[in-house]
Amino acid sequence: MKTECCELEIGLHKRDAESYTIELSFSTPLSNVEVRPDFKELPRVKFDLDELHAHTFNPDSYGNILWRSIFSDETVREFIARAQGAAQSNEMPLRLRLFIDNSARELHDLHWETLRNPDSNSPLITSEQLLFSRYLSSFDWRPIRLRSRSALRALVVIANPVNLEDYSPGGRQLAPLDENCELERAKTGLGDISVTSLCSNGSATLANVINHMRDGYDILYIVCHGAFVKCEPWLLLEDDRGRLAKVNGADLVDRLRELQTPPRLVVLASCQSAGSGIEARSNDGGILASLGPRMAEASVASVVAMQGNISMTTIARFMPVFFRELRRDGQIDRAMAAARSTILSEPDWWIPTLFMRLESGSIWYEAGFAGDQQGDEIWPSLLTGITGDECTCTPILGSGLLESLFGSTREIARRWAETYNFPMEPHQREDLPQVSQYVEVRNGRQHLIQSLRDYLRVEIKKKYLDQIPDSLFTAPLGDLIEAVANKQWEQTQEDPYTVLANLPFSLYITTNQDNTLACALRKAGKEPRVDYCRWNAELATTPTIFESEPSYLPNAEKPLVFHLFGEIGNTKSLVITEDDYFAFLIGVAREKERIPLAVRKAFADSGLLFLGFQMEDWNFRVLLRCIISQEGNRRDKYAHVAVQIAPEEGRILKPKKAREFLESHFKKDYFTGAPFSIYWGSIDDFSKELNQQLNKRIKGGIP
Q: What is the layout of strands, in order, in the sheet containing 560-563?
């Protein structure tokens, strides 16, 4: 269970060559109001860098000097004191985010973690009642997509070039790494998180690291030497022969930025370079910590690095506690505070540093049903609707099911926005209907459709180049999709399509335009019929499946796959742009018969299972309008479930508030009086749990 926190943000911005301005804001989870001090003029802050440098090796005096520098203004001190008092009176921790603006990057060189509370003359940030991080913004508009706790995976990279002794940066002798020892240290720290390692025979190359990261690792744990070259941080990795390869830190950052899903956490671990036994320590001076801000700005959610030389004893005590606490609730700033409190007796306790883009401080979520609802209460109703004597549940599928194959629709929108120089606001660049509208107006409908097909081919080729015969990459798109889907289904029996295809649904409604679902049904031994909505006049004369096969009645063995927003084999049926969605709504409102009776009846008189939607997306909002407009509404008889990935950091300003709003809005405006539940998690989370619940039901003797 995640702990609710009061939030205090301290922002530092460059004012002139010698000073900075400070901004403050405070909020509590009990109020939607953000409080700011009533400054007539933003206070100025100056730092005596010579004095700080003179006390570098005395964290107590350094922390006191830093406190006096930043909190010299009485109004600032009073605001901080009130924020601490409010947190204490509400019996909540205070999350303190230090936001250092891009204009003041040099302030990252200061040892903020040494800050001391002058009232108690003790370190400020070693208590779990004050959760500290260096908070960073990013020019990258991609949201941070979290995973469930059970799915976390780590890639551990240990670079130990065979010719390390040939390189002495700044005259500093570099000691070879004990790969086994470093790997054991990493695994001990990571605990039960699944680990893949790159640590021998030239495997710790930049190319190999990035290739592995494309498989979706959540944590990247790097152990290597570093060096400053012309004031830039470089990592000393390996080439494919195991020899030293100097990699500019900026290149690593750029390659991580290019990933479709950057890691949620990067750990830049210091390696043993001097001494032995209890005297063993790093001696790189915290070179790699300078990459922390750059990585956070490049869409990495959080970075843990060492801002100075640190003993291996301190690392051995810090890392296991950090990862143990992180596994407990996913709150990375709380885990840092807990781990730091265990090393206070060490002189280098202040060296571990957290850079973060997460307002919530959370790098994973706990999948499950929302609010006070308990899965033990909801699963029986849902399973009865699916596997009872009469299946009264209708699955409605969204684009989330396709992300493992093609990436998200938001990613398509962002790529097109870059390709076609989309001129609107940055946050609109991931709205596919809006970007598609621009592409169509600029280049025409035919070009838009071809661009979509080309994009899907390119994404498939990137992901499956080594797994699919070359001949298939020039085959019809439908055949290519079926081939990669089959390849993916071979890897697990809990894939969402596999699970859904083996259930006794007679009707599947999909807002997707590909043929993956029909492929899954055929693989499960069924004979699906495929049809699509005749939402515009050009489609009205095309016979429906019910006109082509007058005797056809959808059933579990011959289910109907109904494409609400078109099927990729018929380009005139596709609903892609904003204008398409508006035309769709108008068309089906004027002539309800454009949606077959069997589908309209399912909308009005069955339990609905929504899978793969974001509630704020166009396709979902239009889908809901179709549902609530149906006559003969009897939805209050059935249990309804929506599987919703939690609102994303980086795209939603206040994810927790957004989640609360969506829960109440959905129940109040669309399913009033009906049993309605939201499962917060991914499609994979839900399908695995659904499969487990079905197996448990069968073992319990319930059909």
A: 368-369, 676-680, 640-644, 607-613, 393-397, 507-510, 560-563, 529-532
Q: How far apart are CA 47 and CA 35, in angstroms?
A: 27
With respect to residue 140, please indicate whether it lies within any of the assigned structural domains.
Answer: no
| Residue 539 one-letter amino acid | L
Which H, E and C letters describe 253-282, residue by residue?
A: HHHHHHCCCCCCEEEEECCCCECCHHHCEC
Q: Are 247 and 164 in contact (CB under 8 A)?
A: no
Q: Which residues contact 336 (CB under 8 A, 6 or more apart)?
A: 131, 132, 133, 304, 322, 352, 354
Residue-range definition of the domain harbouring residue 130 = 6-135
Residue 493 is encoded by which pair of tokens?
């029996």
3 state DSSP class of 678: strand
Structure tokens at 479: 């055949």
- Which is nearest to 265 in space by CA: 208, 305, 304, 215? 304
Lowest mean pLDDT among 28-37, 164-173, 659-668: 659-668
How many domains does the chain contain in total? 3
Please check whether residues 39 and 77 belong to one and the same domain. yes
Least confident of 224-238, 317-331, 364-378, 444-458: 364-378
Residues 206 and 234 occupy one common structural domain: yes
Evaluated on CA atoms 273, 275, 281, 283, the torsion sign reads negative
Residue 274's pLDDT band (boundaries 50, 70, 90)? very low
> What's the burial of 605, exposed, middle or buried (CB within 10 Å: 0-12/13-18/19+)?
middle
- Are the C-beta atoms of 364 and 371 separated by less than 8 Å? no
Strand ranges (E), 314-407: 352-356, 364-365, 368-369, 393-397
Strand order in the sheet with 20-27: 44-45, 20-27, 6-14, 94-100, 130-135, 352-356, 302-306, 265-269, 219-223, 153-158, 194-198
Which residues face 245 on adjacent strands? 237
Long-range contact pairs involving 600-603 (C-beta distance under 8 Å, separation at least 24) = 600/630, 601/632, 602/394, 602/507, 602/509, 603/394, 603/627, 603/630
Nearest by Cα to 295 from 237, 365, 225, 222:
222
Q: How many CB atoms neighbour CB 75 within 10 A? A: 13
Under 8 Å between Cβ of 613 and 619: yes
Q: How many CA atoms lie within 13 A of 276 on its CB side?
A: 3
Q: Quickly state the pLDDT bin for 278 (edges 50, 70, 90).
A: very low
Could you tell me if 351 and 314 are in contact, meaning their C-beta atoms sit under 8 angstroms apart? Answer: yes
Q: Give yes or no for residue 630 having a pLDDT over 70.
A: yes
Q: Tell whether 358 and 373 lie within a shared domain.
A: no
